[in-house]
From TrEMBL:
It is found in: Membrane. It is a multi-pass membrane protein. The chain crosses the membrane at residues 17-36, 42-65, 77-96, 102-121, 133-151, 157-176, 196-216. CDD domains: BI-1-like_bacterial. This is Inner membrane protein YbhL. One of its GO terms (cellular component) is plasma membrane. It comes from Cetobacterium somerae ATCC BAA-474. Belongs to the BI1 family. Its main location: membrane. Keywords: Membrane, Transmembrane, Transmembrane helix.
Length: 224
């Protein structure tokens, strides 16, 4: 059981995580919107898409594997940089899909996120027991997705999106559960809490964005 001080500290930690995640989403959305207003920027993104995606991957790996070596301030800056670069990539989505369709799917994604967040916070079950399932599911999803880039089988693409929606919906609750367990680690300094709040924000940001994109592939209406 938590005492009142522990509950207050826990809530402060979670607020920091959610605020950073929300900031990341705002940056991504803002950058995407700005890019689609400019033809030169759209051309730039199209020409350097591969480079941008590789840079994104390196940033995520840098945050995750270098978190013990970098400061909390550096971790935040890397997360902001990743959010901005992801905005460049997702600007393509804003060109493909109807704006009203994007807003609708964004609303559905938000509702799912809130629901699974509440479940992850309230459940008494230790979701870490599903760690192997989630890791295996993510690896399988990446492999099959890469294969379908070459096979281009539409029904397989649909199946991948369905599986991804299920997986990332469950991952929201799982990651929330993990974030709470980070808070419960008594050997963490204030600097550690600051760094891991950024890691937590990144995890939830990725869950949200991937859930949104796969719901959009399933239910989004494309521009004619």
């Amino acid at each position: 059981m938590y005492n009142s001080i522990e509950i207050s500290t826990k809530n402060s930690f979670l607020r920091k995580v959610f605020m950073q995640m929300f900031l990341g989403l705002l940056i991504t959305g803002g950058v995407s919107w700005y890019v689609v207003q400019s033809q030169p920027l759209i051309s730039f993104v199209a020409n350097y898409m591969t480079f941008i995606i590789v840079a994104e991957l390196l940033l995520v790996l840098g945050i995750n594997f270098g978190i013990n070596k970098i400061s909390s301030g550096t971790a935040k800056l890397l997360f902001i940089a990743y959010s901005a670069m992801n905005g460049l990539v997702l600007s393509v989505v804003m060109l493909i899909y109807n704006p009203y369709s994007i807003l609708y799917v964004l609303g559905v994604t938000s509702l799912i996120f809130v629901g699974m967040t509440i479940y992850g916070l309230k459940t008494k079950e230790d979701l870490s027991s599903y760690d192997g399932f989630f890791k295996g599911g993510l690896i399988a999803l990446v492999i099959v997705s890469l294969l379908n880039l070459f096979l281009k089988i539409s029904i397989l693409g649909w199946f991948i999106s369905v599986c991804a929606v299920v997986l990332f919906t469950a991952l929201i609750a799982y990651d929330i559960n993990r974030i709470v367990k980070i808070f419960q680690s008594n050997d963490l300094t204030e600097e550690d809490y600051n760094k891991f709040s950024t890691i937590g924000a990144l995890m939830l940001y990725l869950d949200f964005v991937n859930l949104f994109l796969n719901l959009l592939r399933l239910f989004g209406k494309r521009n004619n």
